[in-house]
Amino acid sequence: MIKENQKFLNKILLIIDICLIFLSLVFSWIIRFKSNLFNVEGQYLSFNNYIRPVIFVVPIFITLYYLFKLYEPYRIRNFSEEILNIIKANASGILLFVLILFLFKEIDYSRILLFIFSIISTITIIIERTIARLILRMVRKKGYNIKYVIVIGYSDLTNELLKRIRSNRHWGYNILGILDDNKYAVKTKQKIAVNHNNVIDNIVLEQVAVSNSEPYIMGKINELEHYLNNQNIDEVFITLDIKEYDKLKNIIAVCEKCGVRTQIIPDYFKYLPARPYVEEIDGLPLINIRYIPLDNIINKIIKRLLDITAAIFCILITSPIMLITALIIKITSHGPVLFKQERVGLNRRNFKMYKFRSMIVQDDEEEKTQWTIKDDPRKTKFGNFIRKTSIDELPQFFNVLKGDMSIIGPRPERPYFVEQFKEEIPKYMIKHQVRPGITGWAQVNGFRGDTSIKKRIEHDLYYIENWTLWLDIKIVFLTIFNGLVNKNAY
């Protein structure tokens, strides 16, 4: 029944997607040529000429939606991940659309219309999926579209699983009970003792067991096939203790014999970070202990293209400020305008980070090992101003163009302090698995300059493991709205 419901939902979404893509193109034509929002000069292609490519566009977009897993079950999938996939699919679709126009030499097709279409189609699909999710959540909360589940094994993971399912009723999981040899043996002894004292019967015990404080132990693991054959069970969750993994083979064999989907939550995951993921090496499963979204080639390309675009734009916009700053530094103090400092970047490789010089020229060894403090006597008067206003960081846009840095990412540190912190702070070196940034999640949360290194790393790790395009956009806006002036920027 669940599979049939999912197929029906996919068909509905597919039909709606086709309609929305077509209507987005129609509305884009209306906005471009009939709304008076844009100047229309001379002759332009007819409505039919603009709509005709839809015979190519719709199949392309639908295929991309399949490739980006937009028609897979998303009962517990993160919504931000789905939004990102919609953006990726639509961006890829527009690029292919432009390529088809180029191949067919449709040079008169409005580029403004294409831009409008990309915005409208993306927004409408996101709204559609949002509404679909809200409807499904309401339906599941009312007891429909429910998956009936039994759990095999009773461990710490079992309690974690039950707690999360209870607090997320919209997932639509109904736990019928747990099969566990050790826990069932204890329960049986308790029942014998209770009945011996004529105090309470089995029915009352089971009612207590079903309550939120204690899960219902249905029976022993060897009774699994009986339950699968005699009850309407959609999935089996396996949460065995690692000491009981010798039972896995038989459990999986029984589930497959009965045609029931099986999910394993490995006990050893409690020793791993929050978001490990599984890859394959020629058919062999490989568990990567940390999920880093920017390891994905598509995410990496998108972020790099945005970095290059943003860096060029920022260099053009801030070039007058940089020229004035360079001139004042040259006039007011002795030494070079730019300060090049060695920092540790992506994959622990050192690079030269550019800044406007804000201090007097120092001895190399002193510069490498001395931390900047409040009212630091090494700062020049103008240097104090450009550090407070973050103007000294502007040359780092050139580091972004070179590929040493990103606009958003963990701030890079000097090799001397990296060697020190990696011994003192667990997981410190993980920050070097992505490009360092001009600003980052730690900085917009107040951890900049002379603040807690431990808290800074916690925020850096959150960014690395939870990166999305939306998070980068949020950090950019927080950087702007919180102000570039920072009280901790010594």
Automatic annotation (TrEMBL):
Its EC number is 2.7.8.31. Signal peptide: none annotated. It is a multi-pass membrane protein. The chain crosses the membrane at residues 12-31, 51-71, 83-104, 110-132, 305-329. One of its GO terms (molecular function) is undecaprenyl-phosphate glucose phosphotransferase activity. One of its GO terms (cellular component) is membrane. Gene3D superfamilies: NAD(P)-binding Rossmann-like Domain. Residues 303-482 form the Bacterial sugar transferase domain. Keywords: Membrane, Transferase, Transmembrane, Transmembrane helix. InterPro entries: Bact_transf, EPS_sugar_tfrase, Undecaprenyl-P_gluc_Ptfrase. It is found in: Membrane. The keyword Transferase applies. Belongs to the bacterial sugar transferase family. NCBIfam families: EPS_sugtrans, WcaJ_sugtrans. This is UDP-glucose:undecaprenyl-phosphate glucose-1-phosphate transferase. The lineage of its organism: Bacteria, Bacillati, Bacillota, Clostridia, Eubacteriales.
